[in-house]
From TrEMBL:
The keyword Glycosyltransferase applies. SMART domains: PYNP_C. GO terms for biological process: pyrimidine nucleobase metabolic process; pyrimidine nucleoside metabolic process. Keywords: Glycosyltransferase, Transferase. It comes from Metamycoplasma cloacale. The lineage of its organism: Bacteria, Bacillati, Mycoplasmatota, Mycoplasmoidales, Metamycoplasmataceae. It holds the Pfam family Glycos_transf_3. This is Thymidine phosphorylase. Belongs to the thymidine/pyrimidine-nucleoside phosphorylase family.
Amino acid sequence: MRIIDIIDKKVHKEVLTKEEINFFITGYTNGTIPDYQASALLMAIRLNGMNDVETAYLTEAMMYSGDTLDWKYLGKTIADKHSTGGIGDKVSIALCPILSALGLTVAKMSGRGLGHTGGTLDKLESIKGYNFSVTDSEFRELVEKHNIAIVGQNEKLVPADKKIYALRDVTATVESIPLIASSIMSKKLATGSDCILLDVKCGNGAFMKDLEQAKKLGELMIAIGKQLNRKIAVEITNMEQPLGRTIGNKIEVLEAIDTLKGRGQTDFNEIIYSSGSTIIMLAGLANSEKDARLKIKEVIENGKAYNKFLEWISAQGGDIKVFDDPKWLNPQYKYEIKSNAEGYLKINSAISFGLVAMKLGAGREKKEDNIDFEAGIYLNKVSNEYVNKGDVLFTMYSSKPIDVKLEKELLDSIEFSKEKHNIKPVFAKLY
Ligand code: URA
């Protein structure tokens, strides 16, 4: 077999076989296929696509390019969720302890954020002492003892994706639905979960800008999951708006805690109930969405979800005393943006909020940048709340002096009207 023939086949829009796809992944991972040939094949895939079966073969080949985890010996249902990346997305921090409190096991690997989308690991790292660089045996011990652990991406897991993703980044081949689907799914499947919810963010603050593309990606990931015998569901959720009231790191942890204590009242709360009930139904713990929602409400109201959160953070070394300290979030600089108009607010651009949060220090422009855990934005008003002239709309926080020009960036991305707007937190659910 020769890689040049495989490239040529894809250039002529032919379907690749399992053996050809395995040959590519094995060869590229071990270095016998050079970057220039891999780039040519990735570009042919970006231009001519792959069918569902080819994409499943690609996913499987990538998944087996390194170690895989197997939790069968526990005899428990392992649940996972993955978001394609959004602004204000602290879903994992609130949802995982809820799932664990309901009897599911969460053994999750998360990543860092880059640019305007924050990563769960960065948010968790804002809690002093939280340790996500654990060994395989420590990870197992945490999961066995506490039914929940969120750790950093293991280097030995899916090395093919690491190499291919870096190449895609510099060869204009990121935006290919089969390549995105295989990249996400190979990592999810390698961590050995039984029930997986994929939260495909859709809108200007996300990878997928329109619903049609988001549905295509979602359907493809479901087809891959089914081919590889996993229970999988997709929710396509709104990323025209930032999620909830907070964007940043410590500030998002605090909002996740509020939600776990039953004080959530924005779209973020709805996403927790919607995604949570989908996973609970996938795992067979409830027969209807109504029943699943009641179960979530129960563990929030009886404190089990918050207690599980504290148990998890503490087991991973995090200092849980900080959550009782009103000065834990203690930014040196604060800037309130007031409204000079009135009406029902509508935020038109999640990405503007993501970029401003990044400029305040809450995210990284370059991989090596440090994060300011104090930085972020609090949305005193969210879409569909009524605003009077002079009301505070948003508050910006940072450890460095705040550039007043950021105010305009946020004000340019909102509007007001006399009527409420039709804004859905969840666009579609796919099974
Ligand atoms: N996230 C991934 O893990 N891979 C992609 O290709 C895109 C988003």
